[in-house]
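Researcher: Sequence of Major facilitator superfamily (MFS) profile domain-containing protein follows. Predict its structure.
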Amino acid sequence: MEDQSRNRARTKMSREGEPLHRSLIRDTTAYLSYILLVVALGPLQFGFHLAELNAPQNVITCEKKSINSAALHPELPQCIPMNTDQFAVVSSIYTLGGLLGALAAGPLCNKFGRLLTMRLTTIFFVIGPVFESAAPSISLLAFGRVLSGVASGSAVVVVPIYISEVAPPKEKGLFGALTQIMVNMGIVIAQVLGYFLSKDGLWRIILAVAGGIGLFQLLALSLVPESPKWLAENRNPQHARHILRKMRGQKADLDEEVKAWNIDSSREDIAEEESLLSAPAGSHPSQNPDAASETVGIFSAFMHPSYRPAIIAVVAVMVTQQLTGINSIVMYSVSLLSALLPTKAALLTVAISALNLVITTLCAPLSDKIGRKTCILLSIAGMGTSSILLAIGIGEGVKILAAIATLLFVASFAVGLGPVPFILANELVGPEAVGATQSWALAANWLATFIVSQFFPILNKAMGEKGRIYYVFAGLALVLGAFIAWWVPETKGKSGADEVWGKKEARQRVE
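Model: Prediction complete. Tokens:
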């Protein structure tokens, strides 16, 4: 026993100085890679639907004068006449569906499991695009956007929780960034399709592609297991350990990770263990009624003094993510820059989306190195500065400054405000309140997204369409950045919520 303990200690010490890429290759099995890629299609769909109307806006609303060929189907109109305000409603109503999905997902994934919630979510990802791509009118297009929004809101709640629970402990920050990387991937796919298909009735193909992705994910989820951590907390520790073994590989040491579940797996008898081990990976064993009663609800979490500071922190970060203006670029960059760059706006939008994806991917390990809070503050500072430069570039008609400022704006977002917010809920509260906290965070995020998507085109038009609205975003970056610097704690390197908020040290001093 002593030899085993010494060997384990030596292995741990040798791995602490191990390069990140080597550690990542060792900890990521083919099975885990498959699981992560399948579940991350949910955030990809979120990004896709967020950007799908950007490039084809003028074609969909019948503003483009070069429409001259037949629609895809004789019974479907080639375009749907809308003014600016009506298009803003169709774009922003997606976020109201997202709000509903975000509020529902937390309680669902806590009570019925992460896997079932993801499967229900994916059904909406299939149905929503059917209505969108076949819509003959504004009302049906908006209805399809609502359904897609419900799915997206749910996905960006449950998928980060699931990824955090299945990711190797030493790379949680890196794997947590996968959510935002896939969001950006979805944006890139939508913008590229928009660049090539924003003509005639081909815009309907853009919307239909999302349904195809949803159908593929629904089928692929049949091979994805429930979160081991959720199973362990619901009186299935042996089945949880079995799934974790498949994810980590036969040679991995699971003791430390299993110990973190705070579950005594020895209390299960052998017969139950064997039945659990033989159960299919996606099955839902009997739920623990005690665990369900211990789960903290959305409103009780906010009223509890132990969880309220964390909820305020994640809400502040999520609101900042949107009110610094990122979706003014994602959703409206083509129309925003078309006056200044009439022939290059759509191409610049594709370049912006690709840059966002590359920078987010490259910066994914950054939060594990310099800290979550530091990344967020650097991101806010960069976006605030870029907003001022963008306002000057558009207002003064300096094309190169506007283009560079737009690229810097998106790159700054990718450093911190893009990937980090999705990690925080899991690190600021205990597992019993993660679902509730994530629901609060995403509800705030969707409300802020609605405000930007609904009122940006209206305010931009009211302020003369000279880029002055970006001075507003710069001011918001300053105010919100100051609040985050004061309120939000650093979570990097902390073993749990108690240590993050200093409660562990306080207890030790008392003892």
